[in-house]
């Protein structure tokens, strides 16, 4: 009798598997195809953004029945029940696969129950001709209010491995991200002979993860202790088995969610595409047991093939690699070991490379064993030996990665040079330390908070979308190091809409300087709207200054690569170090340049790069939503900071260019979810 029941259960599981597989196949979009030259489609997607729940009723008996974990709307995540922000009840959100030159139409409907707004940024898409579709709240568009839909329409360009994510608050940390793959015709792929398959199922999306909505931790980080804001789990394609789930009817019976499995055939070569949608200082060291990886693209741009044992991928970065399935039939760990905020190998995101014919089981090898050997893009927060060039263990920095094209820029004329310092400031930022009640000088670690800044300026988003309503905002809202006296910003907060302007079609060289004071922290800087060339990345032995790096640069004493430098849109600036980038301002628009560690961005480590004048920009569609403040001193007919120029924000009684902007509040809905989770934990339900 028991055997008959077991057989019946297996048949039910098989039926569910067939249904789920059929649903997945039916969901495959017609634009996910083999690309052809001069053949383009209009590809429409419908996204619903809402608060949702991991291990919801859609999961049925997951993880005790692993088949149930693959049901539509089931988000198993790491095995811990929590509220999430999901697109179409999926984490990651639906994958977009199109061909270069296709027209993408994405209808984003905001169903967030707490009245929260949202936007979606298309990370890696340059938005040439459509800068108002870049998806940055209060820069390129109005935020999308609850109950409304915004239609994004733009060309899928350039080709490469990209992703989309929210650019509001910490929604990316709660699950609002997904892959955006833009392919080329096979005959236009320079590395097509290096691999046999480029499969949708071999896209790997990495992220860090909290056990509760991120705003709960962010609020504690801001108003209590900075060290509280650290991830607990690491997700690979939205999956982890970090937690055991207890059976409600018998808590002694436990199970873990399934990990992602990638199927390969022995002898074949596969293109794997990796993205890092992490929001903290969380680098992943990626490797596959017993296999080398050949890196063929970075941030969507082809590079000269480089075989490595492991590579690092930091928030905002993407890598394409080729895995040759040349080992014995079996199961092998795909490891993404967490570094820096993710625990220096204490946390590992895992997947399984399963050869056809291998048993349906996990590898028996050590999950956390550190793979040694050639390591591309290491974290420079660790000690680094710049002269190591051979042996079993040595690092390859990103400025050593070469573009696939043999380009020589030694004779290129540079139209503008800009030295950008970045650091943390201990000041009376009213976000952390209202000077009247608990000023910074009265607090001691761990309750001491530092303000991130570029050129000692903390970024404030304008009260009106700059790209779509430029005539509605006074120029006094904007600043840069030449218009604000930043010498006092170390003690007093200087906060404004930090913007640097360049003429169209200039060649700009920026030297990014991470001064490393008062704490050494690297930064992942991402530029919207353009690629830049990485000419050099280096790290000094101790904290530095803009003046020191500028002198070294002018004397030719920094790392400098002008022959076949790699093109990127995200670069890591090591603590006590620098990165030298060069780009052409050939895409008219106002582009956000910011640290992709989300907590740094939310606290003001950002600026705008303005390419050209507004008169040179593409026409703005007349029906785009408009928004802004009601009352206060916002618009051009308002009185601004003329009475107290070049003063820190707290010293000016009139509304000033330093302005003020509150981060999105911790919503009532999220608070209720947080309280419920605490109650569930106490009751032993989680």
Mean pLDDT: 86
Helices, by number, come to 5
SSE-based structural type: mainly beta
Ends distance: 34 Å
Low-confidence stretches: 1-26, 383-392, 635-678
Could you give the order of strands across the largest sheet? 13-21-20-15-18-22-23
Radius of gyration in whole Å, from Cα?
A: 25 Å
Number of strands: 36
Helix content: under 10%
Fourth-tier CATH superfamily name of the largest domain: Cupredoxins -  blue copper proteins
Shape: globular
Overall tally of structural domains? 3
Q: Do you know the CATH architecture of the largest domain? A: Sandwich
Query: Any idea of the CATH class of the largest domain?
Result: Mainly Beta
Portion of residues in beta strands equals 25-35%
CATH topology of the largest domain: Immunoglobulin-like
List keywords for this structure.
single chain; 686 residues; globular; disordered N terminus; mainly beta; Immunoglobulin-like
